[in-house]
Amino acid sequence: MKYEHFLKIMENYRSFSDNVSILYKIGFDLHEGEYPTVEQVEKILDTVIESHYGKEGVDWVTWFIFESNWGEKDWSTCDACNENGELICYSFESLYEYLEKLKNGIHK
After folding, report:
1. Is residue 78 part of a domain?
2. Core vs surface per residue 32-65: b (16+ CB within 10 A) or e
3. What is the pTM of this model?
4. Does residue 108 have a pLDDT over 70?
C-alpha cells in the first residue's frame, strides 16, 4: 500500500472516531444500540489493514490508535521498542514504515 493511501485511511478513521466521541457527548451512542456503526467501521479498517499487513498489522494499528493514542502518548517507558530500545510506531509515518517492514518479513 502506498503511504498516501495508508495516511488517508488512518486520518479518515481518526476523524470518524472523533465525530463518534462528539456525538456520544450529545446523546448519540454509535457503539451499541439499534445502529452499532462503530463496529462496522472498525471491521472495515481491520479488513483493509489485514489485506495488506496481516493480523499482526491489525494488532499494531489497534495498538497505535488505542494504546499510544494516535502516537500522542507521553512515553515515560518504552512499551513498544525495537532491539535498540528505540520507540517504534510513534507516528503515522513510523507505523507505516514498520508495517511495510513487517509485510516484507523484516520483523519476523
Report:
1. yes
2. eeeeeebeebbeebbebbeeebeeebbebbeebb
3. 0.86
4. no
